[in-house]
Amino acid sequence: MRGTDMTTATDSGPATTERDHGTAGGGPRPTGGGTTRPGRFRPWQAGLRRGGIELRHLLRNRKELFGYVTNIVVALALAGYIHGKVPGTQIPMAHLTLAGFAAYLLFQIGLISLPQILVTEREEGTLLRLRTTPGGIPAYLIAKSLLIVVMALATLVVLLGAAAALVNGPLPHSPAGWLTLLWVTALGLLAVVPLGAAIGAVLPNPREALAMIMLPAMALLITSGAMFPISKMPAVVQNIASVFPLRWMAQGLRAALLPDSARAAELAGSWQLPTVALVLAAWAVVGFLLAVPLLRRATRRESGSRLTARQGKAELSGTPVA
Amino acid sequence: MTTTAHPETSTMTTTPTAPAGAAPVVETRALRMSYGSADVLKGVDLDIRRGEIFALLGPNGAGKTTTVEILEGFRQRSAGEVRVLGTDPARADDAWRGRIGLVLQSWRDHRRWQVAELLTHFAMYYPDPRDPAELLDLVGLTKQAEKRVDQLSGGQRRRVDVALGIVGRPELLFLDEPTTGFDPEARRDFHDLVERLAREEGVTILLTTHDLAEAERLADRIAMLVDGRIRACGTPAELARRAAAQAEVRWTASDGSPRREHTADPSRLVWELHREAAGPIADLEVRRPTLEDTYLHMVHRQNWDDEQETGFPTGDTTGEATAA
Q1: For chain A, which residues score pLDDT lower than 70?
Q2: C-alpha angle with apex A54: A53 to A60, nearest 5 degrees?
Q3: Nearest to A5 among B138, B201, B324 (CB)
Q4: CB–CB contact A36 B129 (8 Å)
Q5: Is some CB atom of chain A closer than 8 A to the CB atom of B158?
Q6: CB-CB: which of B105, B133, B159 is closest to A304?
């Protein structure tokens, strides 16, 4: 906006007011730099590009990256520290813990990281910006899906790879085991990601959001048999934990990662893979049914004045905005 | 629906000065908004013509934000007709979205993105975007192209918002308090840019501001929204003339006391004073009413048209029940 530039940067569009915005590629198009591609806008294209850029930003952000790496390091340290066998089996306890941690980290990406990202971006106005952009919301959702899937896969690969290399961690023993790892991971993500999106759509702000999700997540981590056999929990706790996806994600990953002899430590004495699939699929359905209207509502509610009001409130309460 | 005669608006806003056949870019008729039992908008009529810079002024709580957000398609109205670029914003689609641009006060998004990266990305979403490099030049951020958004100063950040607002070559641009926190130079540059967009590219601009000088400097026409109604609408000069309608003449009398008189005909008064004094008059000053006078006059005028508080339905309050 320097006054001297004002007269120089004329663009090629002659009849700006008469252009037909509805048709693709109709008007004159700036050719400089090749930075904008002609052609019809496709949300998935913009979404993938956006997801790629967000991943790059994540990789450049040391603080945030450090947070994710810390989770993995803690899991590895714990696995290195834990000794003994899973009761009634010859399986190292550390393997059960690692499988449980793998499940928990997926669970955490979907139900803690994702809601936090959504709430933060809602608060900063990213969601509003995309709402005011044609095709912005589909692109946003595609970008977030890409981000979450890559984060989840990277976490699993690093955790299981490093565990296998450093602390003699578990890896699937057979092609069937790898297949189980794949579908449990996929279905597990489908169970928690839409749910996380729904939570992110309703939680008030990033600060309160974290507090509100962390506690239940921790409780589930302890009670779901992710850290030690669920059979050690009282029956009531077992039943409650069994409603939530984490127990079944952990059990599914144990089925993938541990030998069949480890079934002895399971509640039912078997891996119950059909039940794992059913419960996770049910959560996926519930998550989608909740997420779609809640996200739609959250986006629709966004407006400039709401953004201002929230930020004003955040400043009043003395916490810096995001 | 009853068409209530608004003494103010009927004379000013609906003057048929728009070229025949050119539909207004923004058109509202009897626009009403209620939150519960509170009426925020009590029948707003607006016509904004293509290519004009239109300023909406008014005190906080007068309904400015509500009006603008209804026009932007962010809020459902309770009653009345609204057309923005020929479409009801409550039923707007992506094609319509692509034809409007928004610059809001409180955006703090995309902080990690590099400026050029951000503009290039958002250019993707529009059928006929501006070239990002030209856009950077246009808003004066060429030097900051590689910087991250969170490393910019407040004024630079706002320029990014402006750039994002116009990347899709909007026909209608909403500017919400655009120069809050700008230093005088940045403000002048911004005004130049806004004028350029309107004069050279025919972009219609709806500006909301508290800065009366800004409105006077930029706007072709100004509407004053007070207590849910348009109290006055016209060119800055028209508004100033209409307001107090009387000029103020100040001078120092022969006994040394300061004097002040309001008159519709300051020239005659000054002439009479000169005749009485048979010579020069000390400290003579003629003050024409300013936009500020008009504004304050409108805002403080009580019971302006209470007689109009009649028979409108409260409307189907489909909007959120939270007033801004």
Answers
A1: 1-41, 314-322
A2: 90
A3: B138
A4: yes
A5: no
A6: B105
Q: Is B210 helix (H, G, I), strand (E, B) or coil?
A: coil
What is the rounded average pLDDT for all residues in chain B? 82
Q: In degrees, to the nearest 5, what angle opens at C-alpha B38 toward C-alphas B32 and B41?
A: 25
Cβ under 8 Å to A: B residues 31-70: 50-51, 65, 68-69
Kindly list the domain boundaries of chain B, sorted by start residue. Answer: 7-241, 246-288
Question: Residue B106 is nearest to which of A23, A25, A307, comparing CB atoms?
Answer: A307
What is the pLDDT at residue A287? 94
pLDDT tens digits, one per residue of B16-33: 344 445 789 999 999 999
Concatenated DSSP letters for A33-84? GG-S--S---HHHHHHHHHHHHHHHHHH-HHHHHHHHHHHHHHHHHHHH--S
pLDDT at B240: 74
Q: Write the pLDDT tens digit of every residue in B138-193.
A: 888 999 999 999 999 888 888 899 999 999 999 999 998 888 777 888 888 889 99
Beta carbons of B125 and A2 less than 8 Å apart: no
Burial tier of A42 (Cβ tally within 10 Å: 0-12, 13-18, 19+): middle
DSSP structure string for B43-84: EEEEEE-TT-EEEEE--TTSSHHHHHHHHTTSS--SEEEEEE
DSSP at B4: -
Chain B residues touching residue A57 (CB < 8 angstroms): 112-113
The span from the CA of B141 to the CA of B78, in Å, is 42
Bridge partner list, B100: B172
Distance from CA of B189 to the nearest CA of A (A): 5
CATH topology of domain B7-241: Rossmann fold (3.40.50)
Contacting residues of A for B51, CB less than 8 Å apart: 17
CB-based contacts of B323: which residues, under 8 Å, 6+ apart? B35, B38, B40, B66
Say how far residue B215 (Cα) sits from the centre of its chain. 7
HSE, side-chain direction, 13 A CA sphere, residue A99: 31
> How would you classify the pairing of strands B204-208 and B172-176?
parallel
Q: Is B164 exposed, middle or buried (0-12, 13-18, 19+ CB in 10 A)?
A: buried
B255, with CB counted inside 10 A (0-12, 13-18, 19+), is exposed
Distance CA A23, CA A44 (A): 19
Closest Cβ–Cβ partner in B113, B202, B324 for A17: B202
Give the closest-approach CA distance of A132 to chain B in angstroms: 6
Do B127 and A8 make contact, defined as CB atoms within 8 angstroms?
Answer: no
Of A24, A57, A125, the CB nearest to B127: A24
Q: What is the per-residue pLDDT for B237?
A: 81
Q: What is the DSSP letter of A16?
A: G
- Whether residue B149 contacts residue B157, with contact meaning beta carbons closer than 8 Å, is answered with yes
Which pLDDT band, with edges at 50, 70 and 90, does B301 fall under? low
Confidence of residue B244 (pLDDT cuts 50, 70, 90): low
State the pLDDT at residue B316.
35
Structure tokens at B57: 């002024």
In chain A, residues with a C-beta closer than 8 Å to the C-beta of B65 are: 304-305
**Chain B residues in contact with A136 (beta carbon < 8 A):** 125
CA distance A188 to chain B (A): 30
Contacts of B196 in chain A (CB under 8 A): 6
